[in-house]
Write a structure and sequence with these properties.
Elements lengths: L2 H7 L3 E3 H6 L4 H10 L2 E5 L2 E4 L6 H12 L4 E2 L1 H7 L10 E5 L11 E5 L7 E4 L2 E4 L1 H12 L1 H13 L5 H11 L5 H29 L6 E8 L3 E9 L4 E6 L7 H16 L3 E6 H6 L2 H15 L1
Parallel strand pairs: 5-6, 11-12
Antiparallel strand pairs: 1-3, 2-3, 4-5, 7-8, 9-10, 10-11
Helix pairs in contact: 5-6, 6-7, 6-8, 6-9, 7-9, 8-9
Amino acid sequence: MKLLQLLRRQDGLVRHDQARRLGLSPAAIDRRVDSGEWLVVHPRVYLAATHDLTPRARLRAAALWGGEGATLIGHAGAAWWDLTDRRPATITIAVGPTAGHRAPPGVRVVRRTVSPLDRELVDGVWVVRQSFAALEAATTLGLVEGARLLDRALQRRRFGVSALREALRETGQRHGAVLARRLVELADGGARSEAERDAVRLLDRARITGWTANLPVDLPGFGRVVIDLAFPVQRVAVEIDGWAFHRDVDRFRRDGLRQNEVVIGGWRVIRVTWYELQENPHYLADVVRRALAASAA
């Protein structure tokens, strides 16, 4: 392989030993650095001045610096898998417990052994498996943003909930294990149940009464439906959703048809999601009050 081909394949980056294998002497490498043709990104990792240090190049540069035994993990791994649009401020790589790496600025070294079965070579970079990277990244992003990362990945069929459970088992008592456990429970169908409990709690806290949970309603020409939270007198229905992953295409279509019939039947329908209840807990009480007032008018 020629040098230009390697630079194109590696986002404009080359490691010292790679350049040596392609026939460049240490003096030739130094001349390129001294002339500004190559820029030092990390010790013994260079970027051709004709290329930009893109977010992807930053990830690759850290992996090149770490060497063949290093693995992108956590948020960095999720970014390499393109599971998140947010790029990590610090790139975390796992190295063996006896490795002597001293991390340069912008790189964090974790002395952790990653099993060969738990990492993959993707476009020349060793990265932890998708589910492992996603779950660890989610714990660094916090509850809501971490949930969004996992929800998107599950929607795109990058992996399944069983893979998240396996990643959780590997987490053990590592930092973030409590949040990781909660995220996996939400992914495993718990988001809707938690949203229902939160909705009830928020209505009680706002002292809004007159509602019934899981009210069966018969709609002519459609059949029986069950409204999550119903205000029968004012005919206001609150429908609660969990994560987007929990609503596949068929269910999304059925929910739309069902909601149309509920509206035709004379109900005002409010939809809230787990995310909205987490991020803006005051919204539910506000919108319910407005819907009840509109119905009364």
